[in-house]
Automatic annotation (TrEMBL):
InterPro entries in the record: Carb-bd-like_fold (IPR013784), CBM20 (IPR002044), CBM20_DPE2_1 (IPR034840), GH (IPR017853), Glyco_hydro_77 (IPR003385), Ig-like_fold (IPR013783)
Main localisation: cytoplasm
EC top class named in words: transferase
Composition-biased stretches (Basic and acidic residues): 956-966
SUPFAM superfamilies xref list: (Trans)glycosidases (SSF51445), Starch-binding domain-like (SSF49452)
Identification of the protein by name: 4-alpha-glucanotransferase
Molecular-function GO term, any one: 4-alpha-glucanotransferase activity
Sequence ranges assigned to domain CBM20 in this UniProt record: 7-116, 151-261
Region feature Disordered, mapped onto this chain: 913-966
Amino acid sequence: MANLGLFSGTKSVNVRFRLPYYTQWGQSLVVSGSESVLGAWNVKNGLLLSPVHEGDELLWCGTIAVPSGFESEYSYYVVDDNKNVLRSEVGNKRKLLLPQGIEDGILVELHDLWQTGADTLPFRSAFKDVIFRRSFTLKVERPLGVIENKLDNEDSIIVHFKICSPNIEEGTSIYVVGSSTKLGQWKIEGGLKLSYSGESIWHVDCVLPKAHFPIKYPWENAGNFSLETGPTRDLSLESSNAKPGYIVLSDGMVRETSWRGAGVAIPMFSIRSETDLGVGEFLDLKLLVDWAVQSGFHLVQLLPINDTSVHGMWWDSYPYSSLSVFALHPLYLRVQALSGNIPQDIKVEIEKAKEQLDGKDVDYEATLTTKLSIARKVFAQEKELILNSSSFQEFFSENEDWLKPYAAFCFLRDFFETSDHSQWGRFSHYSKDKLEKLVAKERLHYDVICFHYYIQYHLHLQLSEAADYARKKGVILKGDLPIGVDRNSVDTWVYPNLFRMNTSTGAPPDYFDKNGQNWGFPTYNWEEMSKENYAWWRGRLAQMANYFTAYRIDHILGFFRIWELPEHAMTGLVGKFRPSIPLSQEELEREGIWDFDRLSRPYIQQQFLQDKFGVSWSFIASKFLNEYQKNRYEFKEDCNTEKKIASKLKSLSEMSLLENENKIRLDLFDLLRNIVLIRDPEDPRKFYPRFNLEDTSSFEDLDEHSKNVLKRLYYEYYFHRQENLWRQNALKTLPVLLNSSDMLACGEDLGLIPSCVHPVMQELGLIGLRIQRMPSEPGLEFGIPSQYSYMTVCAPSCHDCSTLRAWWEEDEERRQRYFKTVVGSDLLPPSRCVPDVAHFIIKQHVDAPSMWAIFPLQDLLALKEKYTTRPATEETINDPTNPKHYWRYRVHVTLESLIEDKELITTIKDLVRGSGRSHPGGETESQVKLESAVSTEKQPVANGKEKIPLVSESHGAPKKDLLAVR
C-alpha cells in the first residue's frame, strides 16, 4: 500500500482495486492511470496487483492512498515479470471519482470487470450515431461522483451500483433488485431506481448492512418485468479483515438479448439507377438506403471506393489496388450535380452519354473518360466560383496533406504517361519542396492541378450527402479497407520507407486458388510504420470515418502475418509468411538435413521434361534450361523467375516459335516451383518450407528420413511455431486501427486461419466472417449457420466467390450433398436455384445467432423468379483465380424498379422480422433485446422460493419505466 504520510495534513482515503481475471504463468496485472500515484500512464510505474483466490475466482487486488476528492483516469494491463505490457483493456479509460466528504482513512473498494472489445461495440458510430442514436441524447440526471447516502455506522457499507446500457429509450428507467431488504428482496416495488450520468452509464448508491452480504442480484425491467439474461450476479465481502466503507460496483454492460441486424452488400460500380452514367454513383446510395429501409436492412456494404486510376485502362477496375488510400474514385461522380447552371449543350451531351453507357456491364474506360470530359467543361465554366468558395477552402485546408500529393501525382502520371514513378526523372523521388513547386499557382499547369482538387471536392460533397442521409435513416454505411496499395501509387511515392518494394503480397493456396494468389502489392514495413505510431494507418481510418460508420478489414490475417512473395513472382505459391521464425541451417543440420542446394533449387530431371512437353521437350530445354549434370537441369539466368519465363515466352510466341503458350507457361512454372525449401533472399542460412511441399516430385524423391523430418518441420512451421509471434504482431497493429476512429470494425478472416486469430479478434471486439460454403470448422463441407458465434457476419456468398444461384447450379453432386446434409432431404434437389431454395438458405442466415446477416444483392434477387433470367455466371463480381479479372458487373434492374417491387420488399422484410432481427422503424428496433432469449435460470428469493424471470410477450411499442434487476 502507498505511504499514508504522503498526504499528511490532508484527509487520505485508501482505494483498493479489485478485478477478477485469469492469467497465464508469469503474467500479472497492473493499474496505470493519469495521476502520478498510478504512474502517469507509464505502466512500469503503475500499481502492481496481487492475486487472491476467492472461491473459484482469481482476483487481482492492490491498494493506494489518495487525498479526499481524488480524481483519475485508469486502465488495467496484463504484464510480464518485467512489467512489459502483454495486453491491455479495450475501450475508453475508466474514471475514478471519489465523492466529497468521505471520512479520513476509509477504504473504498473498486469492483471492476475487464473491458473487452465487445464491450465497446455499442459506442462505435454504427450503433451510437445510427442504430441507438436516440439513447445517446438522454439528459444527465445525476453526474458520477455525486453520492446521495452517508455511512450510518461501521456495520454498514455504501454500495455504488454502476451499469452501462447504451440502448435505452427516452422515458425508460433501470432498477436494481436483489436478495437484501434494501434491494426489495427480489420484489420490484422495493428495488432501487438508477440515475443517468451520461455516456450510457446509470448509477445509484445505497447503504447496505454488512450482515446482508453476500448479496445476489440481477437487473430487471420495471414496466414488463424483463430480467437481464445470464446468471444472477453476486456481491460479497472479501475474507480479509479490512472491510470497505464504500464499494464502487462497475458491473459492465446490462446483459441483454444480443442485438442482431441485417444488411445488403453490393459494389458501388454495380448499382444501376435511372440517373447514372454507366456505373453506380455516390448519390445513388440514397436510393439504395431507401430500398434497404423498406426491406428491413440496417446496413449497406460496399467494396473499396478509392481512386484506382493507375494504368489508364480497364485493369483499373480492380477496386483493391488503390492509386491513393485517401482520394475517392472519379468514376462515382454524378456530373449532373456538379452545378445548378449546366449549359444546355452539356446537358444534351450527358443525356446522350446515358444512352451510350447504359450497357449490361460497366464499360470502365469509356465511362471514366466521358465523366472526366464533361467535368472539365463544367470546371472551365465555374472554377473561380468554386475554388474561391468558403466550402471549398474548408475542404482544402482539412485535406491538403494528401490532396496536394494526389493532384501532383495525377498530373505527373498523365505528363509521363505512366504511374511508375521510377520513370519520372527528377520527380521520381518525392520531396515537399518539389511538391510545392509543382502545385504553385504560377505554374502553367495549375488549372490541371485544381481540376483534381475540384473533382475530389465534389466527390466528397456527394458521398457526404449520401452518408448523412443513411445515418438519418438508421442505416449503417459500411466501407472496405484494402490490405494493400498499388505498387505505383501516391502512397508509395510519398512514403517509400513504409513499403518493402522488392516484395509482393498475396495468399497461400486456399478455397479460392490452389496455386495461391499474388495481389502485386508491396508488403508493409511495419518497423518503419511503428516509428510514427502508424500515422499513415491512423490517417487512412480517420478519412474513412468521414463517410462510413462501419468497415470491413480486407484479409485481416495480414495484420498477423502476410504471405510475402518476391517481386518477380507472378503466382502465389512459392511464398513465405512475414513475420515468421524460419528454419535455420543449424537446426536443419541437427536433424540430418544437409543438401540445401538440392532442396532449395528447382529439381528438374529429364523425365519430367519428357512427361510435360512430350516431343517438344528438347526444344523447350534448349530455350529455357541448362543441363548441369547428366539428365539434371536448371533454368537459364534469363528465365529463372516467373516474370522472366513469361517475358521470354511472349517473345518466342511473337516469333511464332511456340504453340499453346499458356500451357507451356504453367508447366515451366511448375518446374520452377518444384522445390522443398525456400531460401531467404536476405539471409542464405535461413529457410522456409514450401507450401504443400509433399505435393512436389522434389519431395517424393527424398529418402524416408528426410521426408519424415521435413513433414514434421513443415507442420510445426505452419501450425505452431509462429502463433505467439503473430499474436504479438496483431496486438501491436490492430488496436491502432480500432482506436483511429469510432467505426465498427469487421474482419475478413477466410482462408488458412492460424489458431491465434480468433482469440485476438474476440479480445479486440472484431467481428468475423462466415460463408456457409467455406466453413471454418474442420471436417464440415457446409457451415451450420445456427451454430455461428454472435461476433460474426454470416452470408451465403461474397464478392470473391460465385453467387448463391451460380454455386447451386454449377455442381450437381455437391448440390445433392447439400440437400441431404443441410436440408435433410433424400429427394432430388431442383437443378435451378428456384426462389424456394434461395428462401431456405437466406432464412438459415437471418435466423443465425450472428450479429449481422449481410446478403449480396444478387442473392436477394434470387428470391423472385423474374430477376433470375440473367445467366447466374454473369452475376459474379470477382474471379480470384484470374489476376486480370475485369470488375464490371452491373445489376440488371434499377433501384427505382426495386423500390416499386413491393412483393420482393415484403418477402425480404418478413424474413428479417421473422428472425427477430432489428429493422429501421420497426417495433423491435429499440427494445429487441428485451423481447426474446432472456435467461430462464431460476432466481432465488428471500423466502426460499424460486422465481423465474418474466419476459414481455408484447411485440408492440416499447414499454417505458424499464427495470434492470441487478
